[in-house]
Design brief:
The protein is an alpha/beta fold and 235 residues long. 35% of the residues lie in helices and 18% in strands. Strands 3-2-1-4-5-7-6-8 form an eight-stranded mixed beta sheet, sandwiched between helices. The structure holds S-adenosylmethionine. The site of S-adenosylmethionine has 17 residues, from β1.
Length: 235
């Protein structure tokens, strides 16, 4: 199981009409997803030649917007997403603040039975969770200089804080994390079934990876991959 199979199973289960992907890169997931309407947003698409040609010819289907998610939600979404979003993948800039803004913007358009999936919510090392301000290049440059101890080429950023934030601050959404594919955050409408208490959102921005290491289960509401079947049945 990975984000592609999880997303497609949800799309099929709820007969989703509109799929939104924030952060598309090469389109590995975007072009494989089967949904009646697909919308992809990325400030710098990196489609391989063949995929790009197929996209231009309309064989690789999907509406694509070469914009940051912030610009997309400000300028394009009011019209483009007027019919709502059924399933979204949030996989753009992997910072606490940007992922939170992306989820909150997405919630403005999420249809009542819609689902948001967030990628990279469960980093397993300090290096994987290295925080950046505005770009992945910050950590890549540090890693090249040997200044990220334990660097293994995988980067998740601090999106884990976004999960904790949503679980603390938004009682009208239900959020848990599937323990697969670097942690898939699952966000749906409805009261939280397992609310997080005992932590404060005000402390999250300055929090270190050690907070996650010591409280992983609780902060993320981490569920085994087998739980996905149970979740699907609730949709
Ligand atoms: C991890 S990749 C996405 C991978 C893709 N979702 C997949 O599963 O194959 C992250 C992408 O986010 C894009 N990105 C970076 N900043 C962004 C922003 N502010 N808004 C939207 N996308 C952004 C990058 O250009 C990059 O292509």
């Amino acid at each position: 199981m990975n984000r592609l199979t999880v997303l497609q199973a949800i799309i099929d289960k709820i007969a989703a009409q509109t799929y939104l992907e924030i952060g598309v890169q090469e389109g590995k997931i975007f072009f494989q997803i089967k949904a009646p309407r697909k919308i992809g947003v990325d400030p710098q698409f990196m489609f391989p030649k063949k995929a790009k040609l197929k996209h231009l010819l309309g064989l690789n289907k999907g509406e694509t917007y070469e914009l940051t998610s912030t610009a997309f939600f400000a300028e394009v979404a009011p019209k483009c997403l007027a019919g709502g979003v059924d399933v979204a993948l949030i996989d753009g800039l992997h910072t606490y603040e940007q992922a939170l803004q992306d989820v909150e913007n997405c919630l403005q358009y999420l249809n009542p039975n819609g689902v948001i999936i967030m990628h990279d919510c469960n980093p397993t090392s300090r290096a994987n969770a290295w925080p950046v301000q505005a770009s992945i290049n910050e950590v890549l440059e540090l890693a090249e200089r040997g200044e990220v101890p334990g660097w293994n080429g995988c980067w998740n950023g601090d999106v884990w804080k976004t999960i904790a934030h949503l679980r603390l601050a938004n009682p009208d959404v239900n959020v848990f994390t599937l323990d697969l594919d670097w942690g898939l955050g699952v966000v749906t409408r409805g009261r939280a079934t397992n609310p997080l208490t005992g932590f404060a959102t005000a402390n999250l921005a300055a929090a270190d990876y050690s907070l996650l290491e010591s409280n992983r289960q609780e902060l993320l509401d981490l569920r085994p991959p087998s739980y996905f079947k149970t979740f699907l049945e609730t949709l």
